[in-house]
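Extended Data, panel c. Modelled sequence:
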Amino acid sequence: MKKTITVAHSPDADDIFMFMAIHFGWVGNHFNYKNTALDIQTLNEFALKNEFDASAISFGLYPLIAKEYALLRTAVSFGQGYGPKLIKKKNSRLKRNFKVALSGANTTNALIFRMKYPEAKIIYKNFLDIENSVLSGEVDAGVLIHESILDFNQNLCVETEIWDIWLELARENLPLPLGGMALRRSLPLNDAIEIEKDLTLAVKIADSNRKIIAPMLLERNLIRVDKEKLDTYLNLYANKNSISMNEIQFKAIDTLFRLGYDYKFYDKIINVNDYLIPSEYKQARNS
């Protein structure tokens, strides 16, 4: 019998799009893949508990789970001139200790926000509830993520972009690392190599067949946006740069981890190349 591998990802358009090939069994001859869709902070919390074999995570979480999970090269989302947005009511001013709603303590946007605004009073909410929390006056501001950045209430405005804070902190024009995939270290190495290969192929299939797969998301009511916004969103977060990370992306992640250490969110600096699946192992063994 084939081994079952649990794959957890968010219910957002980019993740569903990238993992459609896994869901429908279009890739993978060695394993049965079982998909689970949960919001990103819940995924982060389950990763801390070592719940799933493969899981989407916030890059900001990874140093906290590095002993239990390897970092995969595929199914990644980066911002390049865009990303989460800090929003507030129009014509309002934020005090130094303003109250803000964030999507989860372990999200990358929360990590970067806390570096910039150490005196802000933070509450954590499901990302779908953040906009209404600002409109109702429960909080002074909130950080919008996922599809929410494309369309929000006209009574709200952008105070700042997390992208701009990232550039200020990184001091270099690097892509903003948002989300990636982690794989349980307890899996045999040969299995890990095959799983990363399958997931990479799934993302490649999605990118190469966007005109076929994107309409499937709409027809099945799997997403919260219309066709136009879906095209925009996938161009942002599920594109050719999502298939397999490049050196610039590795450098960006290392910069995030260094900043996290400098601001005392992590107890040590880690280098991303030390925590990847050693895919060259199988080639060396078979040569």
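The CA atoms of residues 10 and 37 lie 5 Å apart. This feature is highlighted in the accompanying rendering.
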